[in-house]
Every structure is written in structure tokens, then in C-alpha cells.
Design brief:
Number of helices: 11
Distance between the termini: 39 Å
CATH class: Alpha Beta
Shape: globular
Strand content: 5-15%
Helix content: 40-55%
Bound molecules: zinc ion
CATH topology: Rossmann fold
């Protein structure tokens, strides 16, 4: 048994680009991603069911507790089962780091508390709150207003996530600003790899069929080699004004986090 699990955790508000960051970060052979740890869906991102996927079949066969997946489906933040699964993943894939992007502050708090079991590397990802409001509006348009959140609801939730990021700032290992990441993903990835003592990369290479993470807004058809910032323009003038006012506190926190990043 390992004394400590090296864990990289991406923490951000939903729709900040964590799946993209997660997929690209875990393209490194020494990083294995579990994604959002969504065992309740019983589906792997390789498109097979959790119990048909070769990767997860191997993991479960080696686990001391064969019920671990079921326990995690009921309680995704159960530390003992998470630890067992992480350990199984590290052994099977011969890697050094587990990457997760569940955005669960409950889980992060538990990992901080269990610092004898986890070596936590918290990655704080920030994205302009107006972008996040825009993406929720886009989601509502695409889904005939049956999915996605209103401006007020999104603004409130984004603010809660920013408050948590502020609370974790001292524990943060690395800060990423979405816009900078889109401009130069390789150099952003390499700055993380460097801090983790991993070899840098010179190009983005993602094998879509070798991804066994669980959950996340997945886009298989996405071409990771030509990343560009999406031009978001879904809000009317009035909505944009409302969003700007409601998101002023979040924007100030984001500015402060970015100031700390560059300090
Ligand atoms: Zn799979």
C-alpha cells in the first residue's frame, strides 16, 4: 500500500472548462483521471458501461472491497472507497497522480483533513462569471429552456464557488485563468507539469478512445489540437447589464485570485 496518494483536484464553478483541462492534463502518461467520479451513472467515458469497460473491470477485480463502486455510487465522497479505487487505478496504469474534477468542496475538505492519506494538489480554475452566465443561457436555448440556469441562479451559484475558491486560496497549488489557458494551453499545462516534476510536452495529443474518466461535459468530436475561445454572445443587452451587476462580487474575487496568481 502506498503511504500517500498524489491527488490533483480541479476546483471551479461548473462550465469553467474543467473537463477540457482534465482531459488535456491527463494526456500525460503519469496522470490518470477519474473525472467527476460519477459512479452513479455506471458509465465510463469510453462509452462502455462501468462493468463492461476493460479498465474498470481490471480495477474492480483488484479491489479489496468489491462493493467500492456501489458505495461510491451512493456516497461519492466516501474517503476509504475513493482511496482504494485511486490506489487500484495508480497500480493498474502505472502512473503517479490521480486527477479528479468533481468540484466537491466536501471531498476536498476531507482530503485536507486526511493529509496523511492524500498529497493534495489543488488546481483553481477561474473563468469570467459573465461567460458562465452566457453558457447557461446557451444551454437553455439548446434545451428549449428545460435545462440550464437563469441569470440570477447562475450568478448566485458562481458566487458560492468563488467564495470557496477564496477559502482554498492558501491551499491552492496552481491557479489557471481560462482565457490564458485557451491562448496557450501547452505552456499552461507545462507549468503544472513542471511543478509536479513531470516531463513537459511539446504538443497536445489526446486519445479519445483511451479515456476512462467518469462524468463531465464530454465532447468526443472536439479537436483538441485547435483550441480556441468560443465567442459567447447569448445575452441581450439588458441581460448583460443585469449579469454584470449581479456578478460584480464574483468578478472582484476573480480579480483578486488572478492578482494572487501573478503575485
Ligand atoms: Zn472505459
Amino acid at each position: 500500500m502506498r503511504s500517500k496518494i498524489n491527488l490533483i483536484s480541479i476546483f471551479c464553478a461548473p462550465k469553467s472548462g474543467s473537463t477540457l483541462l482534465e482531459v488535456l492534463l491527463s494526456s500525460h502518461k503519469l496522470i490518470t483521471s477519474i473525472g467527476e467520479r460519477r459512479f452513479e451513472f455506471k458509465k465510463c467515458n469510453c462509452e462502455k458501461s462501468l462493468y463492461d469497460c476493460n479498465f474498470w473491470k481490471k480495477i474492480i477485480s483488484k479491489l479489496p472491497n468489491k462493493n467500492a463502486f456501489e458505495i461510491l455510487a451512493d456516497n461519492k465522497d466516501d474517503i476509504k472507497s475513493n482511496r482504494e479505487v485511486f490506489e487500484g487505478m495508480l497500480n493498474y496504469s502505472n502512473s503517479n497522480f490521480i486527477l479528479e474534477s468533481s468540484k466537491s468542496s466536501k471531498f476536498i475538505d476531507k482530503c485536507i483533513k486526511n493529509d496523511q492519506s492524500f498529497n493534495l494538489n489543488l488546481v483553481t480554475l477561474v473563468r469570467d462569471p459573465i461567460d458562465l452566465v452566457q453558457i447557461q443561457k446557451k444551454k437553455r436555448i439548446i434545451n428549449n429552456y428545460k435545462k440550464g440556469s437563469t441569470i440570477i441562479k447562475t450568478s448566485f451559484f458562481v458566487f458560492l464557488y468563488y467564495l470557496k475558491q477564496l477559502r482554498y486560496l492558501k491551499k491552492t497549488f496552481h491557479i489557471i485563468y481560462y482565457d490564458e489557458f485557451m491562448k496557450d494551453p501547452i505552456s499552461e499545462l507545462n507549468s503544472i507539469y513542471r511543478k509536479l516534476n513531470l516531463d513537459p510536452i511539446s504538443n497536445l495529443k489526446v486519445n479519445n478512445y483511451d479515456i476512462h474518466s467518469l462524468g463531465g461535459s464530454f465532447a468526443k468530436t472536439r479537436n483538441y489540437n485547435i483550441l480556441r475561445r468560443e465567442n459567447l454572445n447569448y445575452l441581450t443587452g439588458l441581460e448583460k447589464l443585469i449579469a454584470r451587476i449581479l456578478n460584480l462580487p464574483s468578478k472582484l474575487i476573480m480579480k483578486y485570485i488572478l492578482y494572487k496568481k501573478n503575485a
